[in-house]
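Hey, quick one: can you model this chain's 3D structure?
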Amino acid sequence: MSILSLMRRRPVGARTEPSSGVPARGASEADVLQLPTSHATGTPAPTAAPSGIVERFGGATEALLVPALAILGSLVLFGIFVALFGKSPIDLYFYIYQGAFGTWFSWQNTLSRSAPLVLTALCTALPAQLGMVIIGGEGALLMGALAATATALALGGAPPVLVMIAMAGAGMGAGGVWIALSGGLRHYRGVNETISSLLLVYIALAILNHLVEGPMRDPTSLNKPSTHEIGAANMIGNIPGLDVHWGLAFGLVAAALAYILIYHTVFGFSVRVAGGNVRAAKVVGLEVGRLILITCFLGGACAGLAGMVEVAATQGRTNANLAAGYGFTGILVAFLARQNPIAVVPVAILLGGIGASGGLLQRRLGLPDASVLVLQGMIFVMVLASETLYGRIGPWLRKSS
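Sure thing. Here's the predicted structure for all 401 residues.
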């Protein structure tokens, strides 16, 4: 039995819905000619012609409007919060914009910060297609960074191109396996993937601290324990003409490939079927366990690649600075983007800009640099609260049109 045949089957005795004047798929010519008629006059009854634009773009409008309202509401609340401490909300909004997008330097800083956010957001967005809530991107990032650093140190005398490729492969492999553990626990042992992926973050952090302060520690790193440097030749550098590292390009390519995989391949269709109805997926013969493991591995590989990028483009070594919260911010990015791999990119740029403005807020308004984390927390709460609006704005738009 195929998926399409299962979806086309109609229960025996099911009542046919009243006709709306539009012939059903597969209707014969005689059926098409039998238009609905008025019982009073016997003439063809007028049919309501819904607005084509609203019918076609109502869902997209809702998908854009609801997150925008959540962000706007968060900014208003954050402005009130800052006003309680004697600061001007207008100045706050101006400096957030100035620090994020006001100058070319701000733009480049924002893009550099958004690169790991795109990749860690995919760690949440891909398993979400299966109905799974994975919040362990931070752990996959740390494991990917450790694996990439260990690979670079082991291949110290190899050509830089080979080292970079090996670092990327090791980082993606380590991150993928780390998130696949949550998927395997969910499928084979019934362990909630949200809890297991979160706990794995702390295990990854403990492993990082143990290795950085122990076997992999550079003896010359006294104040902040770190590994040996991977070497300047093994750094990935910046995109030509920009002060933005190649991690941004990796994120854009990963987002595009993830979109194609989920929405334009048989594998992606199978994933969405399993995410919509696991029982139906099993009835048509889909291997749900295999889909879970592969999808979780791919999501973790994206976060592991983010860890490799942070080592090879920013830090040059592994230390506690890698636990900067990119994995947790990626969860917010994925939720704001409604788990759409393409929508992840602009949302990551927006939140990367908010993070980049923290330093300017500290210098000009005297706010703590971490104050932007309060704003991110408010955005996350507002996004969760706005879930009740989905499915209500579209009908309102159709009614008003």
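One thing worth noting: The chain has one domain: 69-390.
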